[in-house]
Amino acid sequence: MNSELFVQKLFQRNYGVHLSKIKESGDKSPDYEFIFNGKRVFVCELKTIERVRTEAAGWEIINDSEGMREATRDDNAVERVARKIHEAHKQLKSYSQPKVLIFLNKDSLVDFKDLEEAFNGYQIYSNGRVKLVNTASARIANGIIRNEKYDIDLYVWVDKPGNEVFFRYLTQIGCDLAHKFFKH
After folding, report:
1. How many C-beta atoms lie closer than 10 Å to residue 55's C-beta?
2. For the segment 132-154, what is each residue's pLDDT rounded down to a tens digit?
3. Which helix (H) or strand (E) holds 57?
């Protein structure tokens, strides 16, 4: 099942939210709209985080003589998430209706915390006795998406294959959408 159909079925099944493809053409239009009581309630863009472990994607791949494969690279998950926010913003910004960005995550090395880190510019690690605040992502959060991230009302993160869904909103409109239509 392709990503778009998967998300449409998931939203219909879990929330009763029927996402309709937007008939408008061009790279600068969102993927979906949600119509409720005959009115467009929000527009929605779907961005997929693909699992990519190739040399072309910056991974150093080592195959040893026993068939063991090792892949290494610097973590770029937060940067990948921020790029998706930037791309979606370009597609959503010209619409007056509330804006929703859905992430369909297919990469086991990326998770909802990477979205949080893209917003905040830091990640907190703690074992209960020691707390470490890693601020390596501040340049990302305060870079190109610094203002754009606030223009998107609701973020929905879907982890596949577990189908766990997380919500993040930065506006009151996003909060209202999450509560009314997604019971969150």
Report:
1. 10
2. 999 989 999 999 999 999 999 99
3. none
